[in-house]
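Revision sheet: C-alpha cells.
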Amino acid sequence: MGEENSDSVAAFAKILEEWEREHGSAASPVPILEKMAKLVEKETEQFLKIDPDPFDDRHPARTDPNCALGQVLRSLFKNDNFMNRLINSYIMTGRDMEVKTAACRLLLDVLPGLETSIIYQETEGLIAQFFSWAKDAEEPLRSYATGLLASAMDIQEIAGNYSVFNSTLVPVMLQRLKDLKEQFQEEGASCDSWSSESKTEVDDRPFSCFAIPSESESEHDNSSTLDNTSTLPSTSHDTPTTAEDKPTDKGKGKAKKKLGGQRLKLKKGSNITPTQMQALENLGYDREWSNTSWEIVSPYLIGTHCMVPMTLVMQQRLIIQYLTPLGEYQELLATVLQQGAMDLVLHYIDLKKTCDVRLTFEGLKYLGALLCHKKFAAEFVSSGGLQKLLEVHRPSMAATGVSMCLYYLAYNEDTMERICLLPSPVLNDLISYALWLLECSHESGRCHATMFFMLSFPFKAVLELFDMQDGLRKLYNLISTLEILNVEDQGALLTDDETFASRQTVKHTCVALNRYFEAHLALKVDSVKRQFSRNQGLPPPEPIPPYKAIPLTHDAVVENMETILEYAPMRLYWEPLQEFNKLQGIQLMLQVIVLSCDWRNYSGRGEAIKAALDVIAILTVTPRAQLQLCEQVELMDNTSTVGMNIVCGMAEGSVFADPDVQKSALRVIINCVCGPTTRFGGSVTRFTSGGKRNRTTIRSGGDVLGKLWACVQANNGIKALLTLLMVKTPITEADAIRALACRALCGLARSETVKQIISKLPLFTHGQLQLMVREPSLQDKRSEHLKFCRYASELIERVTGKSSIGPDTSLNDIYRLNIVAQTKISYPSKELLQLIHSHLMSQGLLDTAATLQREAELPSSSSASSTPPTVKPDRMYSTPKIGNTPVHLSISLPTTPLHEKFRFSDRSLLSTPEASSSQVISASSNGPIRSTLKKKTLKASTSQVAYQQNMAALKRQSSRKLASPPTLDSIVSNYLMEQHARCKNPVVTCPPFSLLERHRCPDPKFRRRAPASITSRLMRRPAFPIHGGVDGARQNRNFVYSRFTPVQTIVDSEEDGYLTCCAFSKHLDPTNMFLYVGTYAGELKVYNLKTGAEEESYVCHTSSVTSCQPSTDGKLMLTSSLWGRPMSALWSMDEVFERKFAFEEDHYMEFGKLSEDKIIGTKDETAHIYDTTTGKSILTLVDTELCNNYTKNCATFDPTDELVLSDGVLWDIRSKKPIHKFDKFNSNISGRFHPSGLEVIINSEIWDIRSFHLLHTVPALDQCQLAFNNAGDIMYGAMLQLDEDDEFSDERMKSPFGSSFRTFDATDYKPIVTIDVKRNIFDLATDPTDTYLAVIENQGNLLEDTLLESACRLYEIGRKKVDDEDEDEQTDGREDEDDDDDDGSDDDSLIFDDDEEDNDNEGGENGEDGHGNADEDNDDLSLNDDDDDDLSEIDFSDDIDELVSGDSDDDDILFALSSSFR
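Predicted:
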C-alpha cells in the first residue's frame, strides 16, 4: 500500500507540473482539473475504506499519516499559485461553465484538508456565487455548489451574514430533497440492485477480507447478487455513553459482538473463502454461503463516495449536508416543519430505504441538529422516531450518528420523560444500543454515548436498566483500558491527538460515573428515609416517579451525603459500591487524580480531577470506602502512596491549585473525619462486611474513625487544613473553602492527639481563628461566612471545652475567665453602706443619711472618707476587655426568687455590638460562684440587617426577664466581678473585695527574685548566690546575648570571592583557633582568628560549599556542596589535606553528637549512616509511607547518638525502625534536636520527645536555621539565603527578618534580641568558648552580577558597640543596632507577664524594649505601672555611678562583669 501511496503522490505531482507548463497558454484547464479531481476522489475512496471516525474533522494526514490522500492534499496546498488561480480565475472570473464545474468539483474534493474560513471570508462574492449556482445552475454544478455552501454554513459568522439567503434557499432545498427521494424510489433503486460503479480492486484495507480474489473476480462477477428475501439487520444491542467535545481519534476498534434481530442472509454456493466468511460472521451475518462480494456489503458498513457521475444518492447527501448546520437555527424551524422535515428524516435514517450508510449518516446528522429544538424532539419521540433510530444497522458508521442523536435526546429533560414512558422493550433496546456504543470503534461514538448516560442517569427507569445490563462494568472499562492510565508508561507511544482523545474520554467518563453515583445516592437516601419513617410511625416521603428526573443539584447531593453519613446503618449494603469495589474503582479514581495533574497542556484536567474526587466523596459516606483511602495506591515509577495522601494534597492545592478541586477534596476529608462515632446497627468498632473472619479482623483493626483520624494526621492533613483556613485567594471562593476546612478540623479535633496539637498552635494561642470570624473575605459570600462562624465556634468549644467569648478571645483568655468564674465574690457590708450614705448626702437627704449613719454605726467622718477614689470612668466602670473585645459578665443569684432572676449584663450586651456571647456567673454570699458558659452562643452576624434582628430578639427576651428590678447585691457583685476580670493574673481565692479601693490581684513574684539591674544582681551575689537571686541566670543570659559588636571582617582574597558558609575549629586552644570559610567556587579557606590572616586554601568541590564541619580534634573535615559529584566528602587535615571518602549523592553531612565515629548523610528523604573510619554505609533510614518530603531535609543525631531525626521522622538506630512521625506544618525545615535531648524543634513547633505532644509554637522561629551555643541554653536563628533555586528565597529577602539574626533563650524560647545586619545572611556559627559569632553576610547577587560585598563578620558576644564619636553619633549608632520586632506580640505569646513591672523579658536589661528590640541604654530597669498608678520608681543610677565612674573603660568593665556569667 505504501508503493501505491507513493505512486499517487508522484502522479499528482506530475499533474501539477503539467498545469504549471500550460496555465499560461490558451489551453483549457478542464482536463487537468478533472485528472486532479479523479485522483483525489480515488484516494478519498481508499481513505474511507479504513473506516475513519465520521465526526473526525481533522486533516486526513493527521487521522492516518500513511494515507495517500493526506499527502496529496498537502502537496496541493503548498502550491499557492494554483489555489489562487483555482478560486479567483476558474471559479470567480471565468466564463466557461465547464471550467467552473471542474473547478468546483476539485474544490469540493479537497475540502477535508482546506482551511475554509480563510478562503470564504477573504474572497468577496464567492458565497453569493455559490448561492446562485445552488439555486439555478444545472447539474452537476448545482450539487457541487450546494456541497461548498454546506462547508461555508459550518462557520457561524458566514451563516449569520447570509441568513436572508438561507431563508430563501432552505425551502428550495427541502423541496428538491423530496423530489430526489421520489425520483430515487420511482427509478426502482433498491438494496438488491446496487450499481457496479463502486467496484474497486482488492487492496490493503481493513475490510479487504470481504473482497473476491482478483483472479476469480471476473468469473464470478455476474453471480454476485443479494437474495431478494434478504433484509437489513434491525439492531437492539448494548449502548454506551460518551460524548466528546472534540472528536479526534480515528476509528480503529473491533466490533466483534454478534448482533441480535434480523441478519443479512447470503445465498448458498458461495466461493468466499473461510477467512472472509468468518469476518462476515464477526460482523453479524449468518453462515448461509453465497458468492456475495465486498461491493454488496460495503454500502451497509462504510458507504460509497462518487462525484462523477453525480448519482441521486450523492445529490441527496450534499443537500442534507447544507441543511444540517442550519437545522439548529430557531428562525428556520417553522419552515422546516412546514416542508415536512420529520417525514424526510424518518426516511433517511432508515438504511433499508436509502441503501447507503453514508446517506443514512447524513440524515442522522441532520436529525441531531433538529433535535436541539424541544418541539421537534417531542414530536420525533411521539411519532416513533426512537424505534426507527434503534433499527440503524450496527456495526456501521451510521451507528456513530445514532450516538449523537441519543445525546441530543437526553439533553432535553422533557424529551427524556417521554422516552421513559415508552414500553419497556423499547427502553431496553435503547440502553443496549447505548451500551454497545460504549465499546464501538469510533471515539466520537463512545464519547456521545458516555454523555447520553451522564444526562440520563437521573431517570430511575434508565438507571435500573443500566444496572441490569452490567452497565457499570462497561463504563468502567472505558477508561480502565486506556494507555494513558497505564502507570508504567502512561501512553508514551501515543500521538498528541490520541492522547487528547484519551484525556477527553477520562474526563467524560469520570463525570458520568459521578452522575451515576449521585443518582444512586439519592435513591438510597429515599430508602433510608422511608425506613426511618416506618420505624417512627411517620408518613413516608412522596416517591419520585421513574420517568421523572431525580434532583441532583449540588446542595441536594451534599444533603444526601450528610443524611447517609449520619443516619445510615453501620452494615449498609449498597450494591453500586459493592460492584465498584470489585472493579477496584476507588484505586482507579485515585490514579486518575494523580496522573491528571501532569496534563498541563489539557484544559479539562481540573474538571476530570474534580469529577474523580466527587465520585470518591459520594462513596466515602460508607465506612468500607473510607477505609480504602487508608490503603496503598500504585503509581508511576513503581511507587505507591496512601490514598488519603493524594486527597490531602489536592485539598492543599500544592500540586494543582483549583478552588473547585480543593472543595471536592475537602468534602472527601469531611466525610472521613466527621462521621458519627456510633451508627444504627452497631458501633464503629464493630464494622464488618459479613462473615466471622471479617468481623474479627475489623475489631482487631480498631475504631474506623480512629484509623481515619490517624491516617489524615499521618498524611499532613492538619497542615493542609490550617493552610486552607488562612486562604484569601481566589476571593470568590475563599469563604467557602475556609468553611469546609474549619468543618473538617471540627471532626478531626475529636481525636485527643489532634486536639492537643492544634490547641498549641497560633490558631488558638494567638486568637487567629477569632480574628477570621470578624468579616468575610467577600461581602457577597456572607452565607458561606456564617457557616464558617458556626464551625469556628464549634471548633473552639471542642478544643477548649468552652464557647468563644469574643472575636479577639485567645485560648489563654478563655482559661483566665474560667478562673474568674470560679472566684467567690464577697465585700464588707459597711463599705456599701458608706457609699449609700455618701449618695444620700449628695442628693440632699440629710435626715435619711443621718439615720443610716446612726443605725449602721458608721464613723462620723464617713461622708468624707467614704467617697470612692477618683478613677477614670472608662477604667472603673467600663466592661472589661480581652484583647479588643469587651467581655460581659452576667450574674444570677441563687437566693433571688425564680421570677426575679436577672442577668445584669443584658443591657450592656444590647448596647455593645462587639459582644458575641455572655458568660453566666452564679454568685451568693454563702458559696462560690459557679461558671456555666453557654453552650449555644450568639452567632456573629456580618450584616447589619441580621445584627438588628438579633438585637431585637434579645431586647424582647430581656424585656420579659426585666419584670423584676435587679437587686443591689447583684449590681455590686457584678461590678466587682468585672474588676476581677481585668486582672492580668486572676486567682480563685481572693480576700473580700473593697468598694472604696480598686481591686487588683497580685502578680506572681518570688520574694528572692533577682533584680532587673545587672549592677544590683552583682551586688547581691554574696547574699543571694549564685546569680543574685531567683531567675538571675536567665537575666544574665539575656544581658550577655543581647549585646554584639563586630570586631573583625574577613573578606576573600580573590576579587570576585563569594563566601557561603563558615565554622569554627572546636579545640579550645586560644592561640590555635581557626575559622573555616566555604566559597561559591568550591574552595575551603582557613583563617587564623588571632591574626585574621588566611592560612590555607583547598579546592573541595566544583560548586559552592554549603556546609563545613570540623571534627573535635581538628583532624577531619566534612564538606557538602550544592551540586556536582561528589556532593559531600570527608577530608583528612592531619598532615596533608586530602580526601578520605566521597559521598556522591548526600547533600548534607554531619558528625555524631556524642562520638564522631559515625557520620550521617542526607539524600532527599533518605538518611545514611557511615562509619567514619571506613567510610562504608552501615545503616539506611527511609520509609516512603512516612516521609514528609521537606525540601531542605537535614538528618541529624540526638545528643546521645541513639536517635535520628530525618524528614520529620524519629528513628531508633538500635532497632532500625521509625518511632514517630511528627506532624508537618511547613514545607522546608525538617527540624533538629534540642541540646537537652528532650525536645525536637521543627521550624516554629517545639515537640516533646517523650510524649510527642506539641509544647509550644514560636512564630519567631519560622523558616529559621538554628544554631546553639556551647552550653545549649542560647539559640541563634536566621533565615539563610544560600539556595538560589529556592522558591521561598524572595519571600525571605522581603521579610523584616530576612537580613537579621535573632537570639532566643533556649530554656523557654523567648526572644532576646534581633540584630539587623542589613545584608543577606548565608550562614552563622559560634565558637567553642561562646565568645564570638561568625556570620556570612553578602550584599547583592553574584549570578546577577550585582555583588557589592561578601564577607564573614565576627561579632564579639556580650560587648556593646564602642563608638569614639560624639554623643549624637553615639545615638545614631545605637539606633542602627536597635531593631524593631514587628511580631513582638507573637514572640511574647508564652510570656507570663509581658508588660508589668519587670516585663519578664528583661526589658532594657535583656537588650529588648519589651518586644524583642535591642536597647543598649537601659542597663537600669524601672518599674512602670501600666494602669497609671503613681508608684515609686526604682532607680539604680546612683549605684551604677558609684561602681562605674564613666571613664573610657565603662564598656570593658561591664563586659568583664558579663564574661563571668559564661
